Amino acid sequence: TDGASWADDDWQEAHERLAELEDKAVAKGDGGGEEQDLLGDPEDALAERLTRLVIDSELEDPAIMRAVQTRGPVQHPGGLNSSIWDSSAVLQRIRGPLLAQEMPSVSVLDYALPQRPPQPREEERDPSERALPRRSSSPVIGSPPVRAVPIGTPPKQPAVPNFTQQILCPKPVHIRAPMQQRYPAPYGDRMSPNQLCNVPNSSLLGHPFPPSVSPVLTHLQRAQLLGGAQAGRMSPSQFARVSGLVGSPLPSVNPKLLQGRVGQMMPPASGFRAFFGAPPAPPPPPSQPQHPPGPGPHLQNLRPQPQIFRPDTTHLHPQHRRLLHQRQQQNRNQHRSLNGSVGDRGGHRSSHQEQMRKDPYANLMLQREKDWVSKIQMMQLQSTDPYLDDYYYQNYFQKLEKLSAAEEVQGDGPKKERTKLITPQVAKLEHTYKPVQFEGSLGKLTVSSVNNPRKMIDAVVTSRSEDDETKEKQVRDKRRQTLVTIEKTYSLLLDVEDYERRYLLSLEGERPALMGERKQKICEMYDNLRGKVPGHERPSDDHFMQIMCIRKGKRLVARILPFLSPEQAADVLLATARNLPFLIKKDAQDEVLPCLLRPFSHVLYHLPLGTVTTLVQQLTNLPQSGAANPHLAAVLQNKFGLSLLFLVLSRGEELQSSEANTELIQDNPWTELMLLATRELLRIPQAALAKPVSTPSNLLSLFSRYVDQQKLNLLETKL
Amino acid sequence: ISAVPDPLSLSAEKHLVLLRDGRTLIGFLRSIDQFANLVLHQTVERIHVGKKYGDIPRGIFVVRGENVVLLGEIDLEKESDTPLQQVSIEEILEEQRVELQAKQESEKLKVQALKERGLSVPRADTLDEY
């Protein structure tokens, strides 16, 4: 929020200023009202700044504006879809009457703003009835503004003693009538006028409505009411008429009360179905058994109506959009109905007095303030790149859409619009910041603000020499560096994974560039993985091992593998195989290695026999002199190791069997390895063997080449 | 049946607020701002232990937005038909204390058992990674 400088002033000064203003305004006949200078009424200035704060040109998203409920449609010349939102002049004009009424207890304003249009917005009359002390409408830094009525003035109406008791025992404040229905939507948001009259909107009017009373409207009246509502806009006169009609048959009930009540209710909305598709209406309150059949068929006739689609709100999910419109509808109708008592203000006031009596704190927040907050909330929904900002939502609803599309293809039902669930992007606007310039000043002021921050501290990064640090610190730093590398590589990976989508969205000319970028990023990733070494050789696996020791690093490698070229992938595989026992030891707690199996198997599929042989060599650490082979033992005892070994062996077997030239078998290093490997396998006790993820089927045939039947059986049992 | 709850309508309905430290507050929501700072009137802190609950009247609460987990309107019809049983404040506080103690005991035993087996659950703050 902005810090208004005037608020720092002493309240006395503000008071004096107000007094001046009063004199000035009485003197001038004509228009100072529109120009708000800083010395003007503090509330106005603040309000103006508030409005300016929010109403920027970039924020003229009609969706946001629709969230704001004070801008009722009756106000504007063009109707909802006009471009009035663009002109601040109009908005100021609208804002005017609001302000005039928010300061009821300060009569100064009535003088200060003489030519405010005669208040068309009756709903803001409520504040005039509140005798609650005036509040500032937003957080004010500094002293509160002057109050004409000092704080702590009790409300005009005598407080109901019932209420004060309830401060201590916070039970629900209102005595509720037996049928409790707020905003009932039994007929899909449309209510029969009878029901309207009967439903106690208990939150606002706590008066217990005698359940026995059920006003009867003639068909004509009902038709009028519904007919009026059909257009979606209840004209005030219509409502007043209906209210009058409603009032008459009930001599026992205070007609004014009823009018007020009717005003509070939700008159039939125009064709918006209730949230979640209006399931079959819940039964109307039991006290009016005779009414449901009446309005029912009537409403059915009126039901098919074109939905007033607000195309601007398509970036919202349809459910959210419905919510939004429902809310607006409710509030608008509330306001409108309050408008409706043009000819009968007295009645309205009394009903509001009732409301105040029951709950004097109910309207602490002005509608304007609520709109402000909801506007901010809506602003947050604007997005320049929905895939970036709201990835999971987008993907989830894409999946849903695909599902429903698939179903539709089978079902042959009506074609729904497919574009419903796509969030349109708000165009990214370039903002060039222009520093504040004052006219008539000499030179430029250096004003430091959010857009133009001033450097406060000169921070210089100094790296310490190696000698100073202890061994522990070095280790920690190295680990941290690895973590940073992993994170950087991850961002690259996410980018690369996203290229497919971008490719589809981009233009023809841009595509080669995109591909180039993608390739480059892949190379970068690989370099990150293996450690950038200037020479051709990659002498040490150290860097790679560091990454593989960390859980996230292993997952990263698994995700990167599909993007690497076969040679690079093979390189990674070999490095893993070479150091497998070490990795196994490190993985004891995390147990993440098996996630690598699938990408490894994909890679294996493309490898030639020579590589596979080397791989086996690395894995098993054969040939080796000496009886013990801890490397192989470790591999065999680990689930991942064993599974990998099997995969490799199976691949080798595939290659062997597919090769036409069988003479090579003799000289093949593969064969030698196999012989050794089988010997080892035989030697190891069965209990020590781990359980592999999957045992490839051709292993037996593999081994059958190299061992005789007896041993084969033995192997079989082991595996 | 009920309309779509809209905290910004600020109807004088009771609201339930869940805070980050696990407290449940029930009161009339009077004011809200863009940070979800809340002003609650006639607030009651409700403590739940098992099937019992107890209400402590607290008065007016101003809650800083970052501590709010969720906020919802209370449907007053449904409020009355719960299987939960309301008890006095002293009783519920006692129950809470007992529950807390039991939890601490079991936690201690668990850590002990793990230690004996040579395992350890690393403390969250010593982990560098996610």
Automatic annotation (TrEMBL), chain A:
Pfam families from the UniProt entry:
PAT1
Where does the UniProt annotation place the signal sequence?
none
Q: InterPro entries annotated for this entry?
A: Pat1-like, PAT1_dom
Tell me a GO biological process for this protein.
Answer: P-body assembly
Acidic residues bias located where?
32-42
> Where is there biased composition of kind Basic and acidic residues?
119-132, 345-360
Q: Which GO terms describe its cellular component?
A: nuclear speck; P-body; PML body
From start to end residue, where is composition biased (Pro residues)? 279-296
Q: Where is the composition biased (Low complexity)?
A: 267-278
Q: What is this protein called?
A: Protein PAT1 homolog 1
Q: Which gene encodes it?
A: Patl1
UniProtKB/TrEMBL annotation, chain B:
An example GO BP is: RNA splicing
Localization recorded for this chain is:
Cytoplasm; Cytoplasm, P-body
Q: Give the principal location in a single coarse category.
A: cytoplasm
Source organism superkingdom: Eukaryota
User: What SMART domains does its record include?
Assistant: Sm (SM00651)
Q: Which UniProt keywords apply?
A: Cytoplasm, mRNA processing, mRNA splicing, Phosphoprotein, Ribonucleoprotein, RNA-binding
InterPro entries recorded: Lsm1 (IPR034104), LSM_dom_sf (IPR010920), PTHR15588 (IPR044642), Sm (IPR047575), Sm_dom_euk/arc (IPR001163)
Query: What PROSITE patterns would the database entry show?
Result: SM
The keyword Lipid metabolism is assigned to this record: no
MF terms from GO for this chain are: mRNA binding
- Where the record annotates domain Sm, the positions are 2-77
Pfam families of this UniProt entry?
LSM
The entry's cellular-component GO terms read: Lsm1-7-Pat1 complex; P-body; ribonucleoprotein complex
Q: How does it assemble?
A: Interacts with SLBP; interaction with SLBP occurs when histone mRNA is being rapidly degraded during the S phase. LSm subunits form a heteromer with a donut shape.
Q: Which family does it belong to?
A: Belongs to the snRNP Sm proteins family.
General function of this protein: Probably involved with other LSm subunits in the general process of degradation of mRNAs. Plays a role in the degradation of histone mRNAs, the only eukaryotic mRNAs that are not polyadenylated. Probably also part of an LSm subunits-containing complex involved in the general process of mRNA degradation.
Q: What is this protein called?
A: U6 snRNA-associated Sm-like protein LSm1
Tell me the lineage of the source organism.
Answer: Eukaryota, Metazoa, Chordata, Craniata, Vertebrata
Q: Which gene encodes it?
A: Lsm1
